[in-house]
Amino acid sequence: MPEINSQFEWVLNVEVVETLLRQLQIRDEVIEYVLDASRQVSQSKNLPEFFGFCNSWKESSQTAGNYSPQWQALAVVSSFPEAMEKHRARAVPWEITKATLADFQRDARGDYGGGNAWEFNRLSWMRNHVTGNFFEIGRLQYIPGKFSYKFRVYQNSENGEVISFALPGLKCTSQGWPCDGAVDFETILEESNNCILGNPTFANGAISPSVLQIPSGSKVLLDADSTVAQIHIPSGGKLDRTDCCQSLHDAKSFFQKYFPEIHIRAFCTATWLLDPELAKVLPDSNIAEFGRLFHSLALINGNDRQLRERVFGDAEWDQCKAENSLQKAILNHHHNGGEFRSAAGFILSEEIL
After folding, report:
1. Any domain includes 145
2. Residue 58, Cα to own-chain centre: how many angstroms?
3. Maximum CA pair distance of the chain?
C-alpha cells in the first residue's frame, strides 16, 4: 500500500466515519454518500495525492482539481476533528459545534430536501466551518470580521440618533443607489473641528443627495476598523422573528463568553432578504419583520440577481412563474414597475437585548 498521511488515515475506516457523522446527526443518505467515498478512496492508487488534498483544501487558492464531489466531501469530513478540537479549546458547547458542522449536509442553496439525490457541492463554503471562527447559533450563522460596507456610522451627540454617512466618492443615481456609471451626485464625508458633513442614508438604505451636518463630537460607532459579526441566513427553515431575535441574543452572549478578546460592535449582513421593496410587497411577512431589525445600507451595484436565484431559481424575469404567495407578490410588484435590489444592514450590539 502507498504511504499515507496518518492524520487523515481515519477517513478510510467507515465505522469511525459513520460514528462521527451520526454524532453530528447527519442524514442517512449523506452518511452513505460519504461512506461510499471512503470505500472508493481506500481502494484507490492515489492515496498520497488524496491526503495531500485533505491537507490543502482549506486554502482559498486550492481548487478541487479532478476530485469527484464525493471525494471532496470526504476531504471536508477529514477536517472535522480539527474543527471540533478548535471548538473544544474555547469550550464551545457541543450543540453549537454539532449544528455548525451539520451545515455540511445542506446543498449549495441551503436546502435539506428536494427531489434530487443529495450531492456535495459546498467545498469553498465549508472552509468557513473548519476555521474555528464560524458558528451556527440557533436560526442564524455568524463569523467575526470587519465592517466592510461603504459607510461610517455615527451617534449624533445632540440627540443620540444613529446616522449612517456614505463614504466619500460614491457615485449615485437620483434615487440614491450607488453604482458604477451613476452621474446624479457624488457623496462627500468631511470631518472638522466644527462639524461632520456627509450624505446620510434614508430608512430604506438609499443615500440622500442632500448633505447633513452633525456635531464634530459625535461618536463613531462603526467604520472599517470595527469588528463585527457577519450574519449568514441558512435556508431550510422559517425566518421567524422570535427565533432570529433569540439567535442574535444568544450570539451576543456567545462571543462575550467564549471570545472575550473580541469586541463585537454590530451584527451585519448583506442579502436579498433585506431588499427594502420586500417590506412593501409583503408587509406582514417574516421577511419584512426580519428586515425591520436592521439599519439599512445600500450596496454598490445592488441588483435583483440573488432574489431571482433564491425565489425563482435564477430565471430571467420573463421566465419566472408564480407557484406560491411570495413568488406571486414579487412578480406582481415587478410587473407594476417595482425594482428589487439586495441590500446590507446592521444591528448595533447594544440594540440586542
Report:
1. no
2. 18
3. 76
Q: Has residue 337 got a pLDDT over 80?
A: yes
Question: Which residues does 188 contact at the CB level (< 8 Å), separation at least 6?
Answer: 168, 197, 198, 199, 211
One-letter identity of residue 353: L
In 3-state terms, what secondary structure has residue 134?
coil
| 270 DSSP β-pair partners | 344
Q: What is the pTM of this model?
A: 0.92
Q: Is the pLDDT confidence value at 243 over 80?
A: yes
3-state DSSP percent of the chain in helix, strand and coil, to 5? 40, 20, 45
Residue 305: all three cell numbers together: 440577481
The verdict on 216 and 236 lying in the same domain is no
Task: Please tell me the total count of domains within the chain.
Answer: 3
The three cell numbers locating residue 238: 422559517
Q: Which three cell numbers stand for residue 315?
A: 430565471
Helix and strand element counts for the chain (H, E): 12, 14
H or E, element range at 229: strand 227-232
The amino acid at 322: A
